[in-house]
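Final report, section 2: Outcomes. Of the targets proposed, MOB1A kinase is the one most frequently requested by collaborating groups, and we therefore present its record in full.
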Amino acid sequence: SGSRSSKTFKPKKNIPEGSHQYELLKHAEATLGSGNLRQAVMLPEGEDLNEWIAVNTVDFFNQINMLYGTITEFCTESSCPVMSAGPRYEYHWADGTNIKKPIKCSAPKYIDYLMTWVQDQLDDETLFPSKIGVPFPKNFMSVAKTILKRLFRVYAHIYHQHFDSVIRLQEEAHLNTSFKHFIFFVQEFNLIDRRELAPLQELIEKLGSKDR
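The predicted structure is given below as tokens.
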């Protein structure tokens, strides 16, 4: 399974140093360090919303990539023959281009499709421009929403199917902080439909109530 886990573990998407997006990422990291996640997700004064969402989307992709990378040996064709988040939620894969009709596949296959698809979006300069002054496309917000909606499913799968492994690896604090940051971010800018968040609704309410 060594080769498979490294295959699913996508290369980290780097934001070029010295760029404005790099400065924004540094700002995000600094405010995160303060421990106030509600404040950390807010759009910094005078910044472009698309750019802020782009920087954070890349960051969440890297975080989820890393978190999933730690449990790939437990997420196999036999342990997870379907991509699910508990018994009531099952996900089928379609990307609209290569796979138009949703297909049923194992969780590792689904997550591999998903992460490869996200990586392709992030690497597309017409969607995620890294150069200063290059405008974001008109459909940027809908692209970002689809990416975040799909990344949420990886968190949902980890929590429902692999949380015992996460605890054994002593990574629950890391997973919880990452997920809480993700949820506060998508809530702040209304990026994921409530229906989509249903598989982790109780956890989301619990994380939120601690911060009121």
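The first strand starts at residue 83 and ends at 84.
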